[in-house]
Amino acid sequence: MFPAFRIRSFLFPLLAAMAFGAAHAAPAKNVDEAATAALNKLYAEAPATKALGEKAKAVLVFPEIYKAALLVGGQGGNGAMFKEGRIVGHYNIGGVAVGLEGGAQTYSYAVFLMTDEAVERLKSAAGFEIGVEPNIVVLNAGAGASLSTATTPRDVYAYVFDMQGLMGGVSLQGLKITKLSK
User: Fold this and answer.
1) Rounded to 10 degrees, what is the CA torsion of 179, 153, 140, 56?
2) Is the overall model pTM greater than 0.90, yes or no?
3) Whole-angstrom Cα distance, residue 4 to residue 10?
4) Strand ranges in the chain using DSSP code E only, listed in sequence order
5) Nearest 5°: phi and psi at 73?
6) Closest CA to 163 of 45, 48, 56
7) What are the CA-CA distances from residue 148 to residues 9, 34, 81, 121, 124 (Å)?
8) At 127, is the secondary structure helix, strand, or coil?
9) Which DSSP state fits 155?
10) In the chain, what is the straight-line distance between the N-terminal and C-terminal CA atoms, in Å?
11) Residues 157-178 pLDDT 10s
12) Could you report the per-residue pLDDT of 32-90, keeping only the tens digit for each?
């Protein structure tokens, strides 16, 4: 087994690199292309999400979020907001996790904002935090096949999809979404 200091010497630089990468946005064109491809993939794999997207006031897509942890972890990525089929803004998502968790993974994340109020909360200077907002429903893409907004009306639906890597354990975590300045 690896000594604890070797694991820490690997994990902390990785977390620092993730935080640095999330703070320095990729060129908007790359984010736009990746977000468009990720949204199209979600719609193809979970057709109910396409109907949800058509009803949404806006859809926020993070094509690739990086996550790593060993007791303490971090995650982050950049994305684009779609409104009426057009990209209208760029956002950052980041967070920390504390608990019995270890591993590394990437995943895609789509947030369907169903009301004007939800869009305005996100556009506010402070953004909003997933895991704190009371009207957010988080599902994986497979669960989206049977979703009905008539039976589960909410302000925000969030989907995790295209997961790669291995992450295990139990932790307390939160994600904060903030608008990137132009």
Assistant:
1) -50
2) no
3) 10
4) 58-83, 86-113, 128-130, 136-140, 156-179
5) -140, 175
6) 45
7) 46, 27, 23, 24, 28
8) coil
9) S
10) 47
11) 888 888 888 777 666 567 788 8
12) 999 999 999 999 999 889 999 999 999 999 999 998 888 888 889 999 999 999 999 99
Q: How many domains does the chain have?
A: 1
**CA angle centred on 80, ends 79 and 84, rounded to 5°:** 155
Q: Any idea which residue has 């990746």 for tokens?
A: 34
Position of tokens 């994340």? Answer: 109
How does pLDDT run across 106-121, given as a tens digit for each residue?
889 999 999 998 888 8
Amino acid at 69: A
Residue type, 168: G
Question: What residues have CB less than 8 Å from 4, skipping those under 6 apart?
Answer: none
Task: Supply the range of the domain harboring residue 61.
Answer: 4-179
